[in-house]
Design brief:
Elements (H helix, E strand, L loop, with lengths): L4 E7 L9 E7 L4 H11 L4 E4 L9 E6 L4 E2 L3 H16 L5 E6 L2 E7 L5 E5 L3 E6 L1 H8 L12 E5 L3 E6 L3 H6 L4 H8 L7 E5 L9 E5 L13 H13 L7 E8 L7 E10 L2 E8 L1 E8 L5
Parallel strand pairs: 2-3, 4-6, 11-12, 13-14
Antiparallel strand pairs: 1-2, 1-17, 3-4, 4-5, 6-7, 7-8, 8-16, 9-10, 10-11, 12-13, 14-15, 15-16
Helix pairs in contact: 3-5
Length: about 290
């Protein structure tokens, strides 16, 4: 196999390297089994492969792998991969490009202030869980869960169980019982609980988020664009901030030493929810995969 170039970027940073969520981006189309091995080797929450050097149907073909499984969609890989395509393939500024994923074509726009934005697919709202069910999984009490709002499975291409909590202390105290999580989710699509509250560490932010141990081999996520897109949709669907249009700042990753900032925009009109998720990307490293002997 010929050598493949790869890049490591940080996505949803707070304006500097070594914050946000790490992503490896490979330029090439090796066999799927090797893609999975490389994702396991790098062991980030996701690794992507840009398999088409030229656009097809107006977008670049991209595959996304977690350490244990390929996924149809994930948030920070979309922004990080678009950043690499613009910088390394196109080598010139463009206002927008599109990625072809199994969930459909995802547009990414580049704002003048350095923030990349993606528009996510319309949300689907699924099963609702009882506070007792989720409290046992998170090693919390039912009183820690904000009873004004449902505990609900939500997806914009990748499903999460959204859990509103009453305080920052409760969010920080949560610990997943993975066996109980697997038993609860069973054959459901959701891969992890996304817990959040309206109390934040930084006063300029609006929500504090954690996405906890999922069932596909990734640890707690520093910054999760797909989950935050679901949260944005949930916020307008359930009037969390008593508004059908929000523009908010989400902080994540502080418990694991990777502070992150995600920009969320969502609005609901005529029964449709439009979601945009944005953040900054920093290039950390680049190299080549060694050729097989």
């Amino acid at each position: 196999m010929s050598r493949m170039e790869f890049y490591i970027v940080d996505v949803f940073t707070i304006g500097r390297k070594y914050t946000g969520n790490q992503l490896a981006v490979y330029l090439g189309d090796p066999p799927a089994a090797l893609m999975q091995q490389l994702a396991k080797e790098i062991n980030f929450s996701e690794t992507t492969f840009v398999t088409s050097p030229q656009p097809e149907n107006g977008g670049y073909n991209v595959r996304i792998f977690m350490p244990e499984v390929e996924v149809d969609f994930a948030g920070h890989p979309v922004l990080g991969t678009a950043f690499v395509i613009r910088q390394e393939y196109l080598k010139q500024p463009v206002d927008e490009l599109r990625l072809n994923l199994p969930v459909g074509q995802i547009p990414v726009t580049f704002a003048d202030d350095g923030v990349l934005w993606m528009r996510q697919n319309p949300p689907s709202f699924g099963h609702q869980f009882t506070p007792a069910e989720i409290a046992r999984i998170l090693n919390l009490t039912e009183a820690d869960i904000d009873a004004r709002f449902p505990v609900q499975e939500v997806s914009t291409g990748l499903a999460f169980v959204l859990v509103p909590l009453v305080s920052l202390a409760a969010v920080q105290r949560a610990r997943v019982n993975l066996d109980r999580l697997r038993a609860l989710l069973g054959a459901r699509d959701a891969i992890a609980p996304a817990i959040f509250c309206a109390e934040t560490l930084a006063p300029q932010n609006d929500i504090h988020v954690r996405v906890l141990d999922d069932i596909y081999g990734a640890p707690e996520d520093p910054a999760t664009g797909s989950a935050n897109g679901c949260i944005a949709a949930y916020i307008v669907e359930h009037d969390y901030f008593k508004s059908r249009a929000v523009s908010i700042r989400s902080e994540q990753g502080y418990q694991i030493g990777r502070p992150s900032l995600l920009r969320l925009e969502a609005s609901k009109a005529n029964g449709e929810i439009i979601i945009r998720v944005g953040g900054r990307v920093e290039l950390v490293a680049q190299g080549r995969l060694a050729a097989d002997e």
